[in-house]
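User: Structure please.
Assistant: Input sequence and predicted structure:
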Amino acid sequence: MTRSLSILVIVFTILAIFQSHARAGDSRKVYIVFTGPGVKSTKEVHLQYLQKVVVGITPAEALEYSYRNRGAFSARLTENEAKKLEKLDGIIGVILSRTIWPDEEPGYGQLSELNTSPGPM
């Protein structure tokens, strides 16, 4: 009896862990974040930006990839976090990442929506 109860507790614990990971994963999507020309594009700087907006996970868990020579990084964010990030100084755009398959035409329409103006001179 005690052994079957122990096994049952272990099974329910594992199910609860999987369920909590699934809930957190469902609301987060990968976004590409473009930084302005004056922003140093390093992993440390990208983590500092994420520290300001990410809730529920660490910035390191949210950061997917740093495009060091491109002035961009990708991060797993909620829609609300992406909106907050886009409003920060030094960020010129945040777009939802999507997979492009070899038989698809790439959609560069989103890139044209970025605020790439140099600002007041």
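The first helix runs from residue 2 to 27.
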